[in-house]
Model the fold of this input.
Amino acid sequence: MALPVETFFLHPDAQGTLQQQIQQMIAQGILTGRFGTGEKLPSTRSLARHLGISRITVTIAYTELLANDYLTSKGRSGYYVSENAPAPPQFSPAADTPDAVDWTRAIGQRFSGGVTPVKPQNWGKYRYPFIYGQADPTLFDHANWRLCALQALGQRDFTTLTTDYYDQDDPKLIEFIARHSLPRRGISARPEQILITLGAQNALWLTAQVLLTQRRRAALEDPCYPALRDILTQSRCHVSPVQVDHEGLIPDAIPDDTDVIFTTPSHQCPTTATMPMQRRRALLERARALDALIVEDDYEFEMSFLKSPSPSLKSLDQDGRVIYVGSFSKSLFPGLRLGYLVGSEPFIREARALRASVLRHPPGHIQRTAAYFLSLGHYDALVRRMSNALHGRRTVMEDAIKANDLQIAGRGAYGGSSFWMQAPDHVRTEDLAVRLRAKSVLIEPGAPFFNGNAPPQNYYRLAYSSIPSTQIAAGIAHIAQEIHDMG
Amino acid sequence: MALPVETFFLHPDAQGTLQQQIQQMIAQGILTGRFGTGEKLPSTRSLARHLGISRITVTIAYTELLANDYLTSKGRSGYYVSENAPAPPQFSPAADTPDAVDWTRAIGQRFSGGVTPVKPQNWGKYRYPFIYGQADPTLFDHANWRLCALQALGQRDFTTLTTDYYDQDDPKLIEFIARHSLPRRGISARPEQILITLGAQNALWLTAQVLLTQRRRAALEDPCYPALRDILTQSRCHVSPVQVDHEGLIPDAIPDDTDVIFTTPSHQCPTTATMPMQRRRALLERARALDALIVEDDYEFEMSFLKSPSPSLKSLDQDGRVIYVGSFSKSLFPGLRLGYLVGSEPFIREARALRASVLRHPPGHIQRTAAYFLSLGHYDALVRRMSNALHGRRTVMEDAIKANDLQIAGRGAYGGSSFWMQAPDHVRTEDLAVRLRAKSVLIEPGAPFFNGNAPPQNYYRLAYSSIPSTQIAAGIAHIAQEIHDMG
Done:
């Protein structure tokens, strides 16, 4: 039987080259059983004419499918579905009946219902995206990343790409972090003191599991990164929210029975406060007095374009008391899922064993690509380019905020990529965000950052990491107008 | 000051092109502070002569470093370390003093000390690697994987590459699994019933966390996959080892108070037993009688080259009782870290929330690359090629095992990639493995697969997924000889 040419059509939203679309169309027809073994494909000429594309494109697609054994050719008579083509499913799928399982009982532990807000995936479609933490396509060094990824896909790196490392990491990436990234933060660490993680999120999660139990107490900043609150809630430890001021976490406010202190000294999340040296020393003193550990999330230290970053807490730590969390998510891109933990060996050993049980190791290809990108100097060039751009945007932001009489509640002393903003008391920023969306403006309401059941409702975060300079003034004006209209 | 040309040398073990090595050498000199701002680099001519390489190579490396702002050029006078180059560390790293922290007390939960054996990373250097679960470079379709990865790195996929998906996955990969992979196992699932995981390991871990507590009981096969035992030990649930025979798990041996049953019906790990249809139905009956859930690890179903694979348990399940674990680690490569969970929506919802807290999502680039590789038909072609190769090797294995009078304790009815072997009672296969290593033969001792404190010592696993056919006979002969010598 010949397959009628009419069953083939190009999907208007399809991605990939025309050749790939044809390959996919035929492979999927075979895999779903719509095209049977021995059935004859339309000739390259007729399919090309039907789809309105070049015949050579169809011929190349057919040749690929021949090579992959989906098709056979019988001399000049044409192309047929191969006998060796993968067989369609032999069993009819079961119908979708209601479960006999009582899931309320069957689920032993619940993890849904956290407080981490979900941001719109299509933020790029908004005209004024004051959104935090997504990669800006105009700043990212896509070309060199691609080259490094390609190199990491080469024959020479076959083992790195494919191997099961069990609990280990790519030695090249570890070496670069130890020899180049950490010295810049004043940290000296041996490879056994470093663990690669799936982003800072994974680093914080692993740390919480190893250090906290139901009988221990964690102190965390209030307001803070909401996903950290979810992690601590799931670990079922006691949690003490500790106030922050314009210098970050207040050491004296940390309760006496605290075991682990989570802090973001470079740019407090979300107020962006930078902790001065004196406060850093006081925090270390307080931790020593309590015999507590400190987990230092050093995110965004690279974005210190106003002044050089302060030494990390870890670099001031003589006791092995500080566990350091680094991340490439902000400086490269969050979809990379690559961060690292630095700490004393007994701690890293447990975190490594847990990571091996949870997921083995971050994919080898990702680790090697990052190692190349870092070691060839592209990373530093990228950070400098991003810092320059953020510096420029920040100035435009400040001018626009001033011109529109909006109120800044917190700003990083050294840089960063956002302002923490305060609207008048009567403005619920959740409502403000909804109203602004309709005007193609994205802002982040502040309430989810706060602990407790009655968070302040009038804060919001304005990031400038993804919005072009030219859009800032108009975006800020929209915000001011909307706040005015809510007055 | 001019940097003397003598400070430059090419490391004999260095990877990458010469141009990249020069770039790296200079970037690292600057980053570590060895080369200071304004210092003059050797001329391209003298550096090329010194290193014995082409001048154009040096020129291109310098030009790259110019573009990245590591170097500046002053007309014809040469290249200098740029003022804009990244600064070396400003703080001297703290010396490595003993910790003041008492880690015995500070660590709340221990995860080290598991039973999962670590395999040699350099297995490729062994002449007779009867090693399990690593990618065979001679079988993997490296060229097409590279092409798909490259496509997934394109501008069009920038968002997929870089974005923070929060708790979501690449819709293209989910769609392919739902429409093409699962129907082949007789499974029909909606996107909300599928979760992408970092390999099967991560899928099993997530499942254990959601379903098990300290008050619940898991039944697992004895012998079984050691990493699953580690996962269950860490979850602190009650664990019942259940005997397997040549048809896999024995349903009647599952204790009455079991909540969750873990099983590997396609190829029991490690005995490779294939569960027949009748046994599958009996297992489902037993689970229903207990109102227990079943976690079906369907690894290696693709390698059913002797007969078509049996329908999955999940395809026979009318109750929503079966949670299905799929993996691309065996059929693609383990370093990919990509698998998936299929189950009822209430279960997947909790697993998704937990995954988001632990690691957010598997890297976007990996997901999209796999989606392309699958949808273009390369995956099916690869599986067919691997199946053919494994079929051939298995025949050679069987002949050699017979010729050398070794004893097979378990073999997959439909295929697989290993034999489960039994040595004479007095042979400790841990010792056998050590002795064989000296002869460049790698085997896997069987004891870690068993539960309990007194595992049988005389079993071992022989995999043929990474050893060329031509090496098999000699390798088996070495094993027979060594067993004889231990007699």
